[in-house]
Each structure stands twice: as C-alpha cells, then as structure tokens.
Amino acid sequence: MTQPTRILAFAGSARKDSFNKQLIRIAARGAEQAGVPCSVIDLRDYTLPVYDADLEEQDGLPEPARKLRELFAAHQGLLISAPEHNSSISALLKNTIDWVTRSPDAKPDISCFRGKWCALLAASPGSLGGLRGLVTVRSLLGNIGVTVLPHQLAVPQAHKAFGPDGELIDEAQRKRAEEVGAELARVLRKLSAA
Q1: Tally of domains within the chain
Q2: CATH number of 17's domain
Q3: What is the pTM for the complete model shown?
Q4: Is-contact 136 89, C-beta < 8 A?
Q5: Which of 24, 67, 128, 174 has the most crowded Cβ, counting Cβ within 10 A?
Q6: How far, in Å, CA of 6 to CA of 194, rounded?
Q7: DSSP state of 167
C-alpha cells in the first residue's frame, strides 16, 4: 500500500518566538488548504549534540536523530523556513541534516532525503529576508537528492512583518507564504497521481 502524501514542515531555528517558526505555520496552512496534510515540528523538541563521528561510533545514533529519520522517511515533502546566520545556514538546521543523513549503523545514508520535494522560506530582520542563507540550503539539499522548487519566499524586516498573533501583517505577503506551501502540495499531489 502506498503511503498517503504528507509534508514535514519545520523551521531551522530553536528560538521560541522565531520569525521562521511563525512563517512555517503560515506556509503549512497553505499546503493543507491545497489538500496535503502537514506535520509541523519544532526542532527544539529533538535536541541533538553537534555531529561528531567519534561520538556516533561510541554511542550510536542519538534517539532524537532516530525519531527525525522516521519522520523524514514518512513524509514525501519538506517545507523549511531557514533563518540566515552570517549569510549562511543556521547551525541547528545543518546539524539536523547531518544527523538525519546518518544510518543506525554509523554510515552515511541519504535515503531519508533522496526523492523528496522541498519548498523554502526565510524570515530575517535584515533587508534581504534571509535570501543569502537560502542559497546554501538549496545547494545542500540538492546535493543529497532533494528537488527544491524554484519558487521561494524571503521576508525582510521580519521584526516588523509579523503581528502579535504570529500572522504576517501584509496580506499580499501572507498569501505569498501560503502559496509556497500550496505549490509544494500541488506538485506532490500530481506526483502521487502519476
């Protein structure tokens, strides 16, 4: 039996009031309105040590990494809102990807990524909205077998963009965020119907 089509949605930020966590919820809503359920997770709930091959050899795959591998394997799409740290990917997001690409027998294994489809977003207080970091995320995901959709959204001046309810204040921007999720959902639905 074929698995139902689902999207795993998360932000590459641990901060409780992260702009990227707010943005991912909006994009996930768009995907669900387009007919594909989303599992929105918080990477803060999957605390991992910094990837270290010696630690992996000594202790094996940490339990949070095992749980994340199961989640990634059970979803056909990825919806990621990636904060920009020093013009690149956040340490949390990179470390998560590094651990999920490891197998329980301490070998490289990109099967949890290969063949997945992904849509990207970012929010940043800067004027580019995290755009520079998305270049790195896009490249990294492409190298491990993920097809990243060309349409993405970077929200600049994020500290002014969200209201107290976590919604984007600008309606056109909110619709664009929802559309990123909806586009991923439509692609996955077409693929599942083929």
Answers
A1: 1
A2: 3.40.50.360
A3: 0.95
A4: yes
A5: 24
A6: 16
A7: S
Report the 10 Å Cβ neighbour count for 147: 13
Tokens of 117: 């489809």
Using 70 as the pLDDT threshold, list the residues of the chain that sit under it: 1-2
Give me the residue label for tokens 């599992």.
Answer: 39
CA angle 88, 94, 95 (to 5 degrees): 145
Q: According to the model, what pLDDT value does residue 2 have?
A: 57
- How many CB atoms sit inside 10 A of residue 17's CB? 9
Please choose, from the candidates 87, 147, 97, 98, the residue with its C-alpha nearest in 3D space to the C-alpha of residue 122: 87
Please check whether residue 169 lies inside any domain of the structure. Answer: yes
Tokens matching residue 180: 């990123």
Q: Which residue's structure tokens are 């996930």?
A: 28
**Other C-beta atoms lying within 10 Å of the C-beta of residue 53:** 9
pLDDT tens by residue, 109-158: 999 999 999 999 999 999 999 999 999 999 999 999 999 999 999 999 99
- Interhelix angle for 63-73 vs 91-100, to 10°? 80
Residue 101 lies in a domain: yes
Of the candidates 151, 194, 187, 168, the one whose C-alpha atom is nearest the C-alpha of residue 36 is 187
Neighbours of 103 (CB within 10 A): 13
Domain membership flag for residue 2: no
Closest CA to 182 of 158, 151, 138: 151
The domain of 73 spans 7-193
What would the two tokens of residue 137 be?
Answer: 């995320």
